[in-house]
Amino acid sequence: MNKIRFATVGLGRMGRGHVNEILGADPSRFELVAVCDNTPERLENLPANWGTQYTKYASLDEVLKDDRIDLVTLAVRHLDHVPLAKRVLEAGKYCMTEKPIATSVAEMKDLIACAEKHPGKLFLRHNRRFEPEFTKAKELMDSGLIGEVQYITINRSVGYCRRNDWMTMTEFYGGLLTNWGPHMLDHALQFLESPVVDIWADVRHSISIGDGDDLYKILLKAANGRLAEVQVTGANTLPGRELEIIGTRGTIAMEHGAKRLHVRMVDPSIPFKPLKPHPENPPLQYGNFDETLTFVDADYDPAPCQMTDVWKHCADTILNGVPYPIKYEEALEVVRITEEVFRKSGFQPMQKFLK
Ligand SMILES: NC(=O)c1ccc[n+]([C@@H]2O[C@H](COP(=O)([O-])OP(=O)(O)OC[C@H]3O[C@@H](n4cnc5c(N)ncnc54)[C@H](O)[C@@H]3O)[C@@H](O)[C@H]2O)c1
What we know:
Blueprint: E1 4-9, H1 13-25, E2 30-36, E3 55-57, H2 60-65, E4 71-74, H3 81-90, E5 94-97, H4 105-117, E6 122-124, H5 132-142, E7 149-157, H6 176-192, E8 196-204, E9 215-222, E10 227-233, E11 241-247, E12 250-255, E13 261-266, E14 295-300, H7 309-320, H8 328-345
Parallel strand pairs: 1-2, 1-4, 2-3, 4-5, 5-6, 7-10
Antiparallel strand pairs: 7-11, 8-9, 9-10, 11-12, 12-13, 13-14
The protein binds nicotinamide-adenine-dinucleotide.
Nicotinamide-adenine-dinucleotide binds at residues 9-15, 36-39, 42, 60, 75-78, 80, 98-99, 125, 127, 179.
């Protein structure tokens, strides 16, 4: 195979994005063969740049019967992700499924079990793994520039909006935690770099029209001692610093909307001398009277990647056998933490999803 013939199922806001992203990101390795939506008008007035060569289907059944199709991308409602992804895999096709990947640990394990029967066919769309600013922050953190990492603060504001679609209704597993949580928890786990051993959470509904949450704060303590705070809000009119990573020799920070990372670190040429604290009366000053540190400031552009790289990785895996970077166990951990957060916070409308 040198070209992936794909179909997108669900032509709402994101499904149209799938087709546009794929055709924009990697046109030489993908070919649009079909689109599908079970709402008839969603199959009308489709973008002209998609061409006219593709077939329109009203059901997934028809897509699965079409032997031309290699890959099915799913952009349907949350509760349909696992049931539909399993049907795609069982039909022997590749499947890219959206976040939230699953609505419970049990469901995620069921999906993984199905994927294991169809090796290499399932792709998870945690596309914000390829956010340029996140990627650069991780690269800076891993370089050791700020010393040993202590606290990671992810403070994502998605605008102030009394949002009113199905994605705010818990009947459909809606809310901001199931919407943005998969992305931000995935970032947190990548920064923590070791298993989560303790979770604290507050989840609440503040202004959205549905009964789902639109404001939450989560603390994740990892086995290596790092602590990540994840706050996501759809109700903040004055968003602050979006990212802060405090290490023993400096801090990486990004202000809301800055799209540029700032680091202030102890001059890398200054080693920390082994010093002892003084029990006697200090001189009439606070701080450290045995050393004077100087600091270096630096700004960094985001990494040269795009969230749409998720499709390039998918193509690299299908066509060239390169391992896909988003692992099933990583998504399982995101689902586990989401479930645990709903449990620990006691956020009432979502308790119905907890077994
Ligand atoms: N990864 C991301 O960054 C990202 C961003 C936005 C949305 N999403 C995800 O994409 C999914 C869809 O979100 P959306 O905003 O596009 O929803 P939407 O309501 O705008 O669109 C869903 C579409 O799917 C169709 N549909 C539903 N069930 C179907 C079925 N069984 N067969 C065929 N068509 C069906 C509906 O008619 C509708 O057109 C959500 O789960 C959401 O979490 C992901």
